[in-house]
Amino acid sequence: MAKTYETKPYTVETLRIIEAIQAVPAGRVSSYRDIAGAAGLPQGARQVARILHTLSISQNLPWHRIIKANGRIALRPGAGQELQIHLLRSEGVAVTDQGTVDMDQYGHIPMLKWRS
């Protein structure tokens, strides 16, 4: 007999991170750090990366819009960097061939509804 598992609901922090990622509009990028900060987790950049890795497909998250705070794509060449560059360029974001974006021009910090 197959064992069944009950899926646990997402934590409040996870839901806030998901909301912040979804709030980054097409043609803009945000950093892992800024997403974490918008979700009320100023030290949560790694948690943002984990959520992107595990929930991007199931939650239809625009993962390609999240990059490092220094404007660099975190993925390495051959490990998804080319796809991320392609997706960002298709939205009008200027990305160098090395995977760098001008955060002053394209950066976006989400403002979540739950924050005052």
- Through-space gap between termini: 50 Å
CATH-assigned homologous superfamily: Winged helix-like DNA-binding domain superfamily/Winged helix DNA-binding domain
Main pleated sheet: 2 strands, parallel
Quickly count the domains: 1
Order of strands side by side in the largest beta sheet?
1-2
Remind me, CATH topology?
Arc Repressor Mutant, subunit A
Uncertain runs: none
Element order: H for helix, E for strand: HEHHEHH
Summarize the helices and strands and which ones pair or pack.
Elements: H1 12-22, E1 30-31, H2 32-38, H3 45-55, E2 66-67, H4 81-90, H5 103-106
Helix pairs in contact: 2-3
Give an overview of the whole structure.
37% of the residues lie in helices and 3% in strands. By secondary structure, it is mainly alpha-helical. The protein has a two-stranded parallel ribbon with strand order 1-2. It is globular.
Q: Which key features would you list for this structure?
A:
mainly alpha; two-stranded parallel ribbon; 5 helices; 3% strand; Arc Repressor Mutant, subunit A; 116 residues
What is shown here, in short?
The protein is mainly alpha-helical. It has a single domain (12-106), classed as Orthogonal Bundle (Arc Repressor Mutant, subunit A), CATH 1.10.10.
